[in-house]
Write a structure and sequence with these properties.
Blueprint: H1 2-14, E1 30-35, E2 38-42, E3 53-68, E4 71-77, E5 80-92, E6 98-104, E7 108-110, H2 117-127, E8 134-139, E9 145-150, H3 158-170, E10 183-185, E11 188-197, E12 200-214, E13 217-228, E14 231-235, E15 238-256, E16 264-277, E17 280-294
Antiparallel strand pairs: 1-11, 2-10, 3-4, 3-5, 3-17, 5-6, 5-7, 6-8, 8-9, 11-12, 12-13, 13-15, 14-15, 15-16, 16-17
Amino acid sequence: MKHIVLATLVALSLSTIATAAPDAPAGSPVVKLVDAGKGAKKQLRFTAKKGLTRSMVMTMKMGMAMSMGANSMPKQDLPLMKLTMDMKVTDVTAAGDIRYTFSLKQPEVVADKGTPQAVIDAVKSASKGMAGLTGYAVVTSRGFTKEADINVPKDADPQMKQFMDSIKQSLYQISAPLPEEPVGVGAKWDTVMQLTQNGMTLDQTATNELVDLKGDTGKLKLTLKQSAKPQKIAVNGMDVNVLSLASNGTGETSLDFTRLVPSQATVTLHSDLKMEAGGQKIGMQMDLTMGLTSK
């Protein structure tokens, strides 16, 4: 059972890699246009107005298999976590930068009947104290997040602080960065960035394809690739040697450019992670599905 709990804690710490952002502005995404598409073309920009309110629901569902030394754990589905965020646009600058505030509601943890209680408790512990937390972010009209912060109580436990740091970083990817150039249907662009998540540095390339564009709405298809070189990190106070990481994913996003965040988005990611901790080699395969809806 302790292997299941350890795997759960490690997975929760690393699960936001798919949508995390750099710890420093210097690591901001670089958008490279690959194909401008066909037909009529236009510059894609977000144009949210001051006073706009949105309620956004993020869901995360993960399954994983793990080996630790001579022990192995068959694939285990973790409980679904559901997080609701209420947002309000408080300012829009002349340059088009959009500032919004947000507050978090109590996360919901939905477990299957066969989920071990220790796993349920680990997930609930990771989200304890999130209800009522507030913060803000500033996003450019192209979807680059310039600032983001969450007001975390000073007396919050380390695990909760680490989890909230991951949520904070994920704010950098709520709005997918848009290309500078005018584009039409069929356009493709790569978003290349180096991420630092919980001390792990990895390279990510996201390829977006504009499959539909009508007025202020559009639809994107996404392919995602990640990789990491050998390095040392700390997870829940434990020193870990990352040996390798390889991830591949796909997703779809429905955008309303006047509403700042996607009306609907899904991402699925498969990761193969090899680590060494406490003198034991650990292998972990994670299947992560993240969803987002807003209204």
